[in-house]
Structures are given as structure tokens and as C-alpha cells.
Amino acid sequence: EVQLVESGGDLVQPGGSLRLSCAASGFIFDMYHMNWVRQAPGKEREWIASINTGHRQFYSDAVKGRFTVSRDDAKKTLYLHMNNLKTEDTGKYYCAHRRIDKMDPSEWGPGTQVTVSA
């Protein structure tokens, strides 16, 4: 059974930083391209970052230059380091081992809430 458990979200001021974690189990972690996805209030989930099995990173324009995705295959954990946070980064953050449209609804974790506010 696939389990993805996100953590690390918090209330932070604009310009602040956070590190999110995603603990994965139920699949061979180091064989999967991993993604971070977020959902702002009232909006659809959007892809923001990925890291492939060779540790190559990909970012959406909205977060490029501010966020860094990394992975520890030995710990089966995905990370998202977020710097210079903006109010528009507010939302619930999820990790995914498939594209958004390929994830089974039962595979989504609980997400972790990030709120950027003064």
C-alpha cells in the first residue's frame, strides 16, 4: 500500500523559509521520479517541483530560484526547501510519485499546510 506523509508546514512571514518533508513507503522509492504539488484555497492542485532518479530537478516558473527539491533514497524521504516565501505560496503541499492526473485518489497523503502571512 502506497503511503505518502507530508510534514513541516507552518505559518511563516513573507520572506521566510520552511523545509517540508515527505516520508514514502509501499513502493520502490529510488525507482520513482518524485513530485511536489500544492493546492491553494479554491484552486486546483498544481505541480511545482520534481526530482528524477538521477537527482535532476525541475521547477515551475512560480517557484524557480526560491525552492529546492531534494531526496534521500536511503531514508525514502523527499524534501522541499522553500526560501523567500510569498503570500501566494499559501496552500496545502503534497508529494506524489506520479503525475497529478495519474495519482489514484487513495494514494494522496494528508498534505501539510503552509500559510504565508504577515
Characterise the protein shown here.
- It is a single chain.
- This protein is an all-beta fold.
- It has no helices and 10 strands.
- It has strands spanning 3-7, 11-12, 18-25, 34-39, 45-51, 57-59, 67-72, 77-82, 91-96, 112-116.
- A 6-stranded mixed sheet has the order 2-10-9-4-5-6, with no helix packed on it. Strands 1-3-8-7 form a 4-stranded antiparallel sheet, with no helix packed on it.
- It is globular and about 40 Å long.
- The N and C termini lie far apart (40 Å).
Top keywords for this entry?
mainly beta, 118 residues, 10 strands
Q: Give the SSE string.
A: EEEEEEEEEE
Helical content stands at under 10%
Number of strands: 10
Strand content: over 45%
SS content category: mainly beta
Please report the number of helical segments. Answer: 0
Q: What about the largest sheet?
A: 6 strands, mixed
Overall form: globular
| Rg calc | 13 Å
Low-pLDDT segments, ≥5 res: none
Distance between the termini: 40 Å
Question: For the largest beta sheet, what order do the strands appear in spatially?
Answer: 2-10-9-4-5-6
Task: Write down the overall mean pLDDT.
Answer: 97
